[in-house]
Specification:
single chain; about 350 residues; alpha+beta; QueA-like; Thrombin, subunit H; 2 domains; nine-stranded mixed beta sheet; six-stranded antiparallel β-barrel; 7 helices
Length: about 350
């Protein structure tokens, strides 16, 4: 299949710029894969689609304030340091913008995002083959402990903020209510719709709630640059699947219960590990660059909860594959659903509305 097969036209005004309140009041499109039937609900109604014993899988990775304001030590020119991944304590892979003139041993002063007061510095160690940089921070303490005071929320580029916007809203809302281990530079957005109250209601119904951890990288926004989707290489992301989650999912599968994956990140973790173990899950920590696209046979995931994704994105391709496992026809079903969502003015992307695909 071609990348252009996954294109669609979205009116710019349907790109959600702010989240709805409360979280579970977002709209929910319910797509039935067996016949293409679509229902229109509110997210908190999702509880009606669960049965006792079903399993809800959530990605509990916490978003870090990854955008740091910097100034080149030599010239004082502004430069942004975007944290991508911690390699060792205070040694990070980053994006630098602009970074064309940056090279080994160049120093950057990290300043307070409001007052421009110097807070710490970092030095470029090297440049990677994909245009990223390895930097080491000059600090006596782990910079993760001070990121909240010096960093900004790494909102995706299609969400626009001005100086008059209330940025505290994003600190709270661009984070799931169950966030745990820090490490993501983009939110696992399908999880943003859940409230603690909704999760408790699901537990009261007999739904088992488990967690995986996949730290979302900036590559989640990377465009597919090849027309032949088979030639696209996915970015790698760190993940962890523990034995407690594995045991709950395996037991549910034996009993014929369904596995509800929240977001493409949860899907990729489970399907990655299943492919390593002949369809079975075992506890595992590592990295994945699994690229799920049509046609695809899913070994673990039975139901998908997701947001509305960008045109020609790998996320859209994964959801298309899930709409018709083992076939390429899911693309047509999904794009027809997207067309209806646009007609009914659903809100798209990270702060937008949700889909439940049964």
């Amino acid at each position: 299949m071609k990348t252009s097969d996954f294109d669609y036209k979205l009116p710019p005004e349907l790109i959600a710029q702010h989240p709805v309140s409360p979280r579970d009041s977002s709209r929910l499109m319910v797509l039935h894969r067996d016949n293409g039937w679509i229902e229109h609900r509110i997210f908190k109604d999702i509880i009606a689609y669960f049965n006792p014993g079903d399993v809800l899988v959530l990605n509990n990775s916490k978003v870090i304030p990854a955008r740091l304001k910097g100034k080149r030590k030599e010239s004082g020119a502004d430069i942004e340091v975007f944290l991508l991944e911690e390699l060792t304590i205070n040694r990070w892979e980053v994006l630098l913008g602009p970074g064309k003139r940056m090279h080994e041993n160049k120093e950057i002063v990290i300043v307070d995002p409001v007052t421009d007061e110097p807070k710490l510095s970092c030095k470029v160690e090297s440049k990677t083959t994909d245009g990223h940089f390895i930097v080491r921070f000059n600090s006596n303490e782990d910079i993760k402990t001070i990121l909240e005071s010096i960093g900004k929320v790494p909102l995706p580029p299609y969400i626009v903020r001005t100086l008059t916007d209330n940025l505290d809203e994003d600190k709270n809302r661009y984070q799931t209510v169950f966030a745990g281990p820090p490490g993501s530079v983009a939110a696992p957005t399908a999880g943003l719709h859940f409230t603690k109250e909704l999760l408790n209601k699901l537990r009261d119904k007999g739904v088992k709630i488990v967690f995986i951890t996949l730290h979302v990288g900036a590559g989640t926004f990377a465009p597919v640059k090849t027309e032949d989707i088979c030639k696209h290489v996915m970015h790698e992301e760190r993940f962890s699947l523990d034995s407690a989650t594995v045991n709950v999912i395996n037991e549910a599968k034996v009993l014929g219960k369904r596995i509800f994956c929240v977001g493409t990140t949860s899907v990729r973790v489970l399907e990655t590990v299943a492919r390593l173990n002949d369809g079975k899950l075992t506890a595992y920590s590592g990295r994945t660059n699994l690229f799920i696209r049509p046609p695809w046979e899913f070994k673990v995931t039975d139901v998908l909860i997701t947001n509305f994704h960008l045109p020609k994105s790998t996320l859209l391709m994964l959801v298309s594959a899930f709409c018709a496992p083992g076939s390429c026809s899911g693309r047509d079903m999904l794009l027809a659903a997207y067309a209806e969502a646009i007609e009914r003015k659903y809100r798209f992307f990270s702060y937008g509305d949700a889909m439940l695909i049964l």
